[in-house]
Amino acid sequence: MTTAWSRRTFLAMSAVLTAAVGAALTPPASAAPLSPSPAADPYAALRATWSRLILGEGFSPTAEPFRSRLTDLGAKARGLLETMAPADGSLWPDAVFADPDPDTDAESFAFSGRMADSFTRLNTMAQAYRQQGTGLTGSTALRDAVLTGLEHLNTQVYNDRQTRYGNWYSWQIGAPQALLDVCVLLYDAIAPERLARYCAAVDHFVPDSAVASYTGTSTGANRVDLCRVLALRGAVGASAAKIALARDALSPVFPLVSKGDGLYADGSFIQHTTVPYTGSYGSVMLGGLGMLFALLKGSDWEVTDPKRQVVFDAVENAWAPFLFNGLVMDAVAGRAISRGEADDHRRGHPILASIVLLGQGASAAENTRWRSLVKGWAQRDYYSPPLSNPSLGLTALARIKNVLDDTALTPLPEPDGHRLFPDMARATHRRPGWAASLSMADRRITYYETGNGENLRGWHTGSGMLYWWGDTFANGQYSDAFWPTVDPYRLPGTTASRKVLANGAGGDWGASLPDVNWVGGATDGKRAAVGQYLRGLSSTLMAKKSWFFLDDTVVCLGAGIQCRDGATVETTVDNRNLGPTGNAPFTVDGSAKPLTLPWSATLTGASWAHLGGHGGYVFPGGATVKALRENRTGRWRDINTGGSADQLSRKYLTLWFDHGRDPSDAGYAYQLLPGATEQRTAARAADSGWLRVLANSDDQQGVAVPSLGLTAVNFWFGGTVGPLVADAPCSVMVTEHGDGTATVCVSDPMRKRTSLTLTWNRTVASVVSKPATVTSAATGTSLRLVFGDLSATRGATQTVKVRLA
């Protein structure tokens, strides 16, 4: 058992180390890597490349925002230096890693996390030593403290004799990534015998077998992280076999998958088997691949697998649809939404930087286009500009600033249109001036993910949560302390029972899945009909919910709402975060409502409502809705055990339908008009012919908008709705164009139809084009389409184009 070190002993040890390594290391004058001989030593070349990747290049340390960031890095490293006190079971007093009862329970997770965090702190110190402008550049005391820390952790815990405890991630990814980064940054200062021991420790916890099969925790973003460990282990330990293994083990990440973790053909990205994770684990995977491609480029181990093009294609197929004005949408961030230090904007910025880095390995055309996309996203992020993001690393800052300063680039606007992601029960909708996203759950996709004490109250985020943002307004709607202060039973767009749920209800890691199949819809790429057969989490709640995403509105229908929880059931029209001030005016049918807090009212026969600075709401035919203006207080720690205990308060304006206790067949109908003025909202409500609700029952839900030539129906069961007849469950959207043609969009959200017959009672002259799934088509006074096996289309939309008579 090692005895605790006193501060005097620690300083004496540092002095010995200084004498031993001083002659071997010349402190760098800049952020450039130590000077290797790449031609003679390919491993030195890799280490030099990795130094550039983690330290950054092409920025002035005296220019902002880099000067301040470097100063902050130095201050953080100085604080770590001053508080480091090697002792039995810890390197810092506040980061005890010795586990008195090694296991895999929550306590052991915490101990293993502190072990990994200790390496991360040493990495911070090493970067402060290597970077210029930190105030500690080239400091021998700082360097020697890092070397002492590495030895202490290797002796105490991270060695080839230790049995791991707690979280596997800490031992296989968190700790070795930070350890190997330090080994690269201080390579010339670390004696070969020590490097060998550190490499042996990595080999012990991350053996070759960790990537032997593409299963378990070795998939998706985790696999990329493991490959990073192996590649750096090879560069530090001069092992060509390890680097080759890392390169080859990336290949299973590239192909599109049809189940489990990875990228799907429709642009979905899944991690932990059931969780949409484009904006968190997906971000890690994108960044990791970009760094590994750059690390190995031009070397004997360059990644040449042609399937890597799948990753390049995914930039616009998978990531871009969830980026808006620099943020990445919370609908695909899993439990990361509960981390107070990183909101949707701060999670989005690293993705922008990763796209820039990935572009260096793509085609010239892809690289230019991606840089133009990034420039647009970064310029439009007025709420949280990337260059002011305190959590964004120097390398990412430098990449984004390089794009912003590139006068040859024309920033590209936000894409316009609808994207449906049936493989992860998500949808995004973009129109000029606003964007929205929808999160649902089904037999394959979890209600929500909790784990590691995170996202404890995300219960209803998969119950039809409808997020929306404006182009120049409300971009901080979900960024400004939304998650710790919002009522978790009243998330926008959701239908939920007020039955009290325990923190983490349903189980960790996305374990709880609703026993439903009908989730998805049909889209022509511009508009969409989307539906969710909802079953409540740990509840008897059942409901049919439909959203019709149109040009300036989302039409929302609900039917068949029933529950026997002994609790009230509510559908939340919206729950807007008005910030600390919360004085946005609220008007109902032209009557201004009080700004005082708290204020509540039951709005009987309401035709429309408007919230200043946000948008409007229309209730076809009038409705009884409840409204509440309130101040809500919460803490990040309430939803994440590792979060801040500081109290936060935000003002909210909430609109909802109260379906009462244990409803048997409740329903609702409303239009959401993002960004609409009060006048436009009132005009839409007054135009009773603009929208026709064709059906809103437990069997079908459908609408018609004559001015758009649109008819859209979600058939929960076969039947007749308006001019459409279906003999089985399906989603249908028909649009008549002004050129004498029409498109018929059909999908089978249940993914089980071996046959489907759809009839459109409209005179059709001919079929212009059809997918292979249409086995026969008859025209005349009605169009009759017979579809073959739709189960193989995985819920994707099948489009038939016809010429009208």
UniProtKB/TrEMBL annotation:
Cleavable signal peptide: 1-31
Q: Which InterPro entries match?
A: Chondroitin_lyas, Gal_mutarotase_sf_dom, GH-type_carb-bd, Lyase_8, Lyase_8-like_C, Lyase_8_alpha_N, Lyase_8_C, Lyase_8_central_dom
Which CDD domains would you find in this protein's record? GAG_Lyase (cd01083)
Q: Which UniProt keywords apply?
A: Lyase, Signal
Question: A GO molecular-function term, please?
Answer: carbon-oxygen lyase activity, acting on polysaccharides
The record's annotation in SUPFAM superfamilies points to: Chondroitin AC/alginate lyase, Galactose mutarotase-like, Hyaluronate lyase-like, C-terminal domain
Pfam families from the UniProt entry: Lyase_8 (PF02278), Lyase_8_C (PF02884), Lyase_8_N (PF08124)
Q: Which residues form the Polysaccharide lyase family 8 C-terminal domain?
A: 692-757
Q: Which Gene3D superfamilies match?
A: 2.70.98.10, Chondroitin AC/alginate lyase, Polysaccharide lyase family 8-like, C-terminal
Domain Polysaccharide lyase family 8 central stretches: 418-676
Active-site annotation: 272, 281, 335
Q: Which PROSITE patterns match?
A: TAT
- What family is it from? Belongs to the polysaccharide lyase 8 family.
Protein name, UniProt field? Twin-arginine translocation signal domain-containing protein
The organism of origin for this protein? Streptomyces californicus
